[in-house]
Amino acid sequence: MGQLDGKVALVTGAARGIGRAIAEKLASEGADLALCDLQADWLTETAESVQKLGRKALCVAVDVSNWEAVQGAVGEVQKAFARVDILVNNAGITKDTFLARMSVEDWDAVLSVNLKGSFLFTKAVSRPMMKQKSGAIVNIASIIGLIGNAGQCNYAASKAGVIALTKSTAKELASRHIRANAVAPGFIHTKMTDALAEDVKAQMLAAIPLKRMGEPEDVANVVLFLASDASAYMTGQVITVSGGMVM
Q1: What is the pLDDT of residue 10?
Q2: CB distance 155 to 198 below 8 Å
Q3: Burial of 90 from C-beta contacts in 10 A (0-12 / 13-18 / 19+)
Q4: Torsion (CA) 164, 170, 171, 173 in degrees, nearest 10
Q5: pLDDT the model gives residue 154
Q6: pLDDT band at 200 (very low <50, low <70, confident <90, very high)
Q7: Burial class of residue 55 in the structure, from the number of CB atoms within 10 Å of its CB (0-12 exposed, 13-18 middle, 19+ buried)
Q8: Residues 81, 119, 121, 155: which is the catalytic one?
């Protein structure tokens, strides 16, 4: 018996990295998956992994910053599964540069995907969850939303906004037995971090008490906890997964 048997989870940005690890972790505990990303063909490998675990996988192409597209995606998920029990807002982008050089377009793009996208999916799934009188929402924030970072004003603002969105959502929806929590990852081993220069990686490791970068599975394990009944008395919380970098 898995912790999520009979549950349906919707994961945005599920094609690769942390999103894929989350989808696979939830499937391994019995959840069927609605996998969302900008293009459906990006989701093929994630869907195959979910299906190998014996769970259903629905691939949905969606621009998370477009309200009509998000409404359509959630409607498609409800038509396929008749319910949504878990929402993981993981979709996110970066367009890093220093404030003086940052274009308005780069600011808008990052806020639209990271923050507006989380708001739109939360808004769209809140109605079916309220009818069910149950649900778990897990937002993927970042330690950068807690501490800031030079060259990432747009990203930091978007992730700080996700944290505030999480807390307000938790207060609004608690009476309907819907919980909302956030995970704030630190430096996680992904293709993006693989491309960093060795001296940059060394600086990162020096700031991490556990002296290693995190793996996508480290984040997925915490998401599973927050999505499951193991965290039934938790809402409005932000859990950092940073190897002790943020305490």
Answers
A1: 98
A2: no
A3: buried
A4: 130
A5: 98
A6: confident
A7: buried
A8: 155
Query: Residue 246: its pLDDT value, please?
Result: 96
For range 160-170, the mean pLDDT: 98
Nearest to 36 by CA among 168, 95, 124: 124
CB 184 within 8 A of CB 242: yes
DSSP single-letter state for residue 183: E
155 is catalytic: yes
Cβ neighbors of 108 (< 8 A, separation 6 or more) are: none
Residue 243 has pLDDT above 90, yes or no: yes
| Residue 190's pLDDT band (cuts 50, 70, 90) | confident
Q: Could you tell me where the DSSP H helices lie in 35-190?
A: 44-52, 67-81, 104-111, 117-132, 144-147, 153-173
Give how far the C-alpha of residue 226 lies from the chain's centroid of Cα atoms, to the nearest Å: 12
